[in-house]
């Protein structure tokens, strides 16, 4: 009986920690949950992100970008052909600054997390930024 209690404890611990979000994931999940396109929550395709959302509470992640509204990640030069026209959310500032399809970014600078959006790019892709995110517009 003691063995079963031990096994139960370890299984419960593994399940708890496998779905634990890092602070970075938690922030990005909040951002994506606030995004909408014509009042519909967005669907995200992950492409080489520095901070993956897999294992987080965000459930609108798809395996194929043909089903996505936004591409999240980095190294967009290797995107599948069907993703090229989609808006992007980057995990690197340089990509945000240089790529006209990147609507926003979450990145680290001088040891601090940064969140930025481009108002013009969001408008171009009909992405609505709620009041909670407007202060991060560049």
What does this structure look like?
The protein has helices spanning 2-18, 23-34, 93-98, 119-124, 131-134, and strands at residues 36-37, 40-41, 44-47, 61-62, 70-73, 88-90, 102-109, 112-117, 127-128. By secondary structure, the protein is of the alpha/beta class. The model is unreliable at 3-18 (pLDDT under 50).
Counted by DSSP, the helix tally is: 5
What's the mean pLDDT score?
A: 85
Helix content: 25-40%
Major sheet attributes: 6 strands, mixed
User: What series of H and E elements makes up the topology?
Assistant: HHEEEEEEHEEHEH
Layout of secondary structure:
Blueprint: H1 2-18, H2 23-34, E1 36-37, E2 40-41, E3 44-47, E4 61-62, E5 70-73, E6 88-90, H3 93-98, E7 102-109, E8 112-117, H4 119-124, E9 127-128, H5 131-134
Parallel strand pairs: 3-4, 3-5, 5-6, 6-7
Antiparallel strand pairs: 1-2, 1-9, 7-8
Summarize the structure in short.
The protein contains 5 helices and 9 strands.
What attributes does this structure have?
single chain; 138 residues; alpha/beta; six-stranded mixed β-sheet; three-stranded antiparallel β-sheet; 5 helices; 9 strands; 33% helix; disordered N terminus
């Amino acid at each position: 009986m003691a063995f079963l209690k031990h096994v139960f404890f370890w299984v419960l611990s593994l399940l708890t920690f496998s779905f634990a979000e890092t602070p970075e994931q938690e922030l990005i999940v909040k951002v994506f949950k606030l995004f909408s396109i014509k009042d519909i929550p967005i669907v995200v395709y992950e492409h080489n992100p520095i901070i993956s959302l897999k294992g987080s509470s965000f459930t609108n992640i798809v395996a194929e970008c043909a089903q996505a509204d936004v591409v999240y990640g980095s190294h967009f030069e290797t995107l599948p052909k069907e993703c090229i026209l989609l808006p992007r959310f980057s995990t690197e500032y340089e990509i945000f600054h240089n790529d006209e399809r990147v609507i926003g970014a979450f990145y680290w600078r001088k040891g601090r997390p940064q969140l930025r959006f481009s108002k013009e790019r969001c408008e171009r892709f009909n992405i609505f930024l709620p009041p909670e995110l407007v202060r991060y517009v560049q």
